[in-house]
């Protein structure tokens, strides 16, 4: 068996022991293992690891790799997602809190593990649109989503899989919060405009219950923000 590695490099012996512990932890499948990228990927919901602590999601992958000119023979996909989560945090883009991420080779195949905290109180944008939200609440969500995407793109980072099901929202009264999930296809682009074009075109096609009027309002909010400024608000 090869050493356990993270996106930052080889882990010391205690990190290898942590991999074993997380890998063997029992939980409920919320996304059953399915075949993707020549391997297998699934997600388990794990119980909280202590009192007053959040539940955890564990993404488990076997033989699930990506290839680039730097890694022509393949590299575990979870390691790219780890880098994306850290990059988003640096940009001020809300994402699930990273608990543990590592990969190892076992019996000739990569095993990858990504453990993150549950976003308590959040629901996907698609599910949220099934609720009876007021115009004020919808605009608050769209304004916040525009801010989050502007921060992401100002760093020349592309989400890569920007579907409504990967955008999570929490609304309390007229206050909205937005976070992004499933960043395993995220990457940095040489030109910011390519990241913008790719993500917005993708979201338009996969926005689920968002009506055209809300889409146009989201675009207006997005384009009203100066580059690098994700804290402004579009006028109602």
From TrEMBL:
<dbReference type="InterPro" id="IPR011009">
    <property type="entry name" value="Kinase-like_dom_sf"/>
</dbReference>
<dbReference type="Pfam" id="PF06293">
    <property type="entry name" value="Kdo"/>
</dbReference>
<protein>
    <submittedName>
        <fullName>InaA protein</fullName>
    </submittedName>
</protein>
<dbReference type="InterPro" id="IPR027023">
    <property type="entry name" value="Put_LipoPS_kinase_InaA"/>
</dbReference>
């Amino acid at each position: 068996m090869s050493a356990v590695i993270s996106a930052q490099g080889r882990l010391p012996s205690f990190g290898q022991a942590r991999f074993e512990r997380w890998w063997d932890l029992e939980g409920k499948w919320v996304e059953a293992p399915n075949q993707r990228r020549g391997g297998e990927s699934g997600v388990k919901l794990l119980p909280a690891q202590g009192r007053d602590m959040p539940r955890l999601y564990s993404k488990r992958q076997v033989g699930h790799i990506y290839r680039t000119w730097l890694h022509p023979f393949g590299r575990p996909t979870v390691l790219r997602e780890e880098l994306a989560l850290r990059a988003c945090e640096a940009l001020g883009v809300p994402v699930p809190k990273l608990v543990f991420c590592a990969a190892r080779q076992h019996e000739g195949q990569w095993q990858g593990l990504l453990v993150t905290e549950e976003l308590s109180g959040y629901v996907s944008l698609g599910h949220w649109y099934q609720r009876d939200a007021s115009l004020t609440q919808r605009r608050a969500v769209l304004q916040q989503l525009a801010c989050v995407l502007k921060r992401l793109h100002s760093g020349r980072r592309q989400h890569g899989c920007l579907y409504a099901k990967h955008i999570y929202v929490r609304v309390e009264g007229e206050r909205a919060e937005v976070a992004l999930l499933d960043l395993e296809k995220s990457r940095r682009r040489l030109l910011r405009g390519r990241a913008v074009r790719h993500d917005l075109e993708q979201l338009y096609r996969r926005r689920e219950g968002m009506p055209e009027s809300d889409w146009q309002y989201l675009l207006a909010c997005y384009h009203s923000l100066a580059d690098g400024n994700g804290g402004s608000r579009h006028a109602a």
